[in-house]
Design a protein that fits this description.
Mean pLDDT: 75
Structural class: mainly alpha
Distance between the termini: 86 Å
Shape: extended
Number of helices: 12
Strand content: 5-15%
Helix content: 55-70%
Strand order of the largest sheet: 2-1-5-4-3
Number of strands: 5
Low-confidence stretches: 1-94
Radius of gyration: 35 Å
Order of helices and strands: HHHHHHEEHHHHHHEEE
């Protein structure tokens, strides 16, 4: 318990210090802000696609105070209190209300589609049974006796309906993965086809059997069997259109993230644009590294540092054009040395990362060595006194907490790893007898989005932007964009070229050769 209390105090001091540093930096930045920076902020609002602000998801502002903190930040933490600084504008309220309306519309559309499909499916399965039972109910005495062949048709209808039920459940009754903006064309066409098919069968049944009260019961059962056979063929058509048609790769898509330029290539078959977008998003959460806006603030802070160092004094009361020319000239002189500053900044950052990584590796190895020593001691105790993995993780976590916090803060990953998630991962590694390298794998290299909790995802709701209709199929040269709140994915479609292979025959005798050795050899 004491180890857990020490750990919580360390993390609370870390968060309070981050808020204090954030307020100090913001006050200093507001004092030195020039009118030109205000105009620049106004011009950024008019841009259609702009870089989103690097706001932490869980309120952890340690990334903003990265440059102002020293290496001994854990020993000089100060807990302060303050008021909330969050605000909301009229535009945010309008956007939130629009999102709520869109979500309500999507839910209604999804439930309406499910209701229509469920009602139509129930009608399909009850129709053959109704065809067989209605004559027995309405004019049972006038029917001809059902022979052996007719009774065999009952068994055929029963098993065919069972096969159709299982196939329909496997193909259609799945949990939806996403809400698409438009209907799935092939699925809608199949529903319309099934409705017209069943309606035509009912129309023929009502005119030729119900009105005339046909007494040939075997023919009525045979009519129901033909309906079930046709429904099985429609199910086969649904498998071809919905599943098999898209398996053969026909297009190659390049997906580029707009903020950091990370890209991947995927092969797709015959899909509509909206379904291709869904496949791209499924692969994005698995293949792309998690989006970290804190890594994009380095270039912004560097540019702000250069502009903050340029000061123009208006002594004689000259106009603003002279000031702008002086600013441009000073920026041109500084441009020659900016690459040197960038080189030394990156080299210093790599040195700090390697240094803190080495400290983290050593601390984790020592902690796991302590765990092995504790396990050896626990084996000698009574079974009721053994420590569970959670208690063991809380016992060794304070020894590595400082090194882990420093490394995560240096690599700007602290907003993705809370103390509770680290303790859960540590107890998981202890339970499964994993090595220190297996424990550190999650923190040394940023993983895909699926590796982290859903609450820490920066991208949940997406908007599809395309010049072509989203229900149209993929074509060569089609470009569409998937937008979320913080970034966008640009997808470029290229058709796989037609490949022509030719065969060249090689005579097996052409590989034969004769090795002639000299009779005289050296001694």
């Amino acid at each position: 318990m004491s180890a857990a209390m020490d750990t919580e105090s360390t993390y609370s001091g870390y968060s309070h210090y981050s808020g204090h540093s954030k307020k100090a930096h913001r006050q200093g930045r507001d004092r030195h802000k020039s009118p030109r920076s205000k105009d620049g902020s106004r011009s950024e609002k008019s841009v259609t696609i702009q870089t989103p602000p690097a706001e932490p998801l869980l309120g952890n502002d340690a990334s903003r105070a990265e440059e102002g903190q020293d290496d001994n930040w854990g020993e000089t933490t100060t807990a302060i209190t303050g008021t909330s600084e969050h605000s909301i504008s009229q535009e945010d309220i309008a956007r939130i209300s629009k999102d709520l309306e869109d979500s309500v519309g999507l839910d209604c559309k999804r439930y309406l589609g499910l209701t229509v499909a469920a009602v139509l499916g129930l009608l399909v399965f009850l129709t053959p049974i109704a065809f067989i039972l209605l004559p027995q109910i309405l004019w049972r005495d006038a029917l001809e006796p059902c022979g052996t062949v007719c009774e065999g048709l009952f068994i055929s209808v029963a098993f065919k309906l069972l096969i159709l039920l299982i196939g329909t459940w496997a193909l259609f009754f799945r949990q939806p993965k996403a809400d698409l903006p438009r209907v799935f064309v092939f699925r809608a066409l199949l529903l319309v086809l099934i409705f017209l098919f069943v309606f035509s069968y009912w129309l023929f049944y009502g005119v030729r059997i119900l009105d005339s009260k046909d007494t040939n019961y075997q023919g009525i059962v045979q009519y129901a069997v033909s309906l079930v056979d046709a429904l099985l063929f429609i199910h086969y058509l649904a498998i071809v259109l919905l599943e098999l048609r898209q398996l053969q790769p026909m297009f190659t898509v390049k997906v580029v993230r707009s903020t950091d330029g990370e890209s991947r290539y995927y092969s797709l078959g015959h899909l509509s644009i909206q379904r291709a977008a869904l496949v791209v998003l499924e692969n994005y959460y698995r293949d792309f590294t998690v989006y970290n806006p804190a890594l994009l603030t380095a270039s912004k802070s560097r540019a702000a540092k250069h502009m903050a160092g340029l000061k123009v004094y208006n002594v004689d009361g000259n106009n603003a054009s002279g000031q702008s020319r002086a600013m441009i000239a000073a920026a041109a002189r500084r441009r020659d040395s900016s690459h040197n500053e960038l080189y030394y900044e990156e080299a210093d950052h790599e040195r700090r990362v390697k240094k803190r990584r080495a400290r983290l590796v050593v601390a984790v190895e020592e902690a796991f060595t302590h765990i092995k020593r504790l396990q050896a001691e626990e084996q000698q105790k009574a079974p009721g006194e053994m420590m569970d993995p959670r208690e063991a993780a809380q016992a060794i976590f304070p020894s590595m907490a400082r090194a882990l916090q420093k490394y995560l803060r240096t690599t700007r990953q602290q907003q993705y790893h809370s103390m509770e998630s680290i303790l859960q991962h540590l107890s998981f590694c202890i339970t499964n007898n994993m090595t220190p390298k297996a424990f550190l794998e999650r923190y040394l290299n940023p993983g895909p989005t699926l590796q982290y909790d859903r609450d820490r995802w920066f991208s949940k709701q997406w908007t599809l932007v395309s010049e072509e209709a989203v229900t149209s199929g993929l074509q060569d040269g089609v470009v569409f964009v998937l937008k979320c709140l913080d970034f966008s994915l640009v997808v470029n479609v290229k058709k796989i070229p037609f490949i022509k292979l030719s065969e060249e025959f090689i005579d097996p005798k052409s590989h034969k050769f004769v090795l002639r050795l000299q009779s005289e050899t050296s001694v």
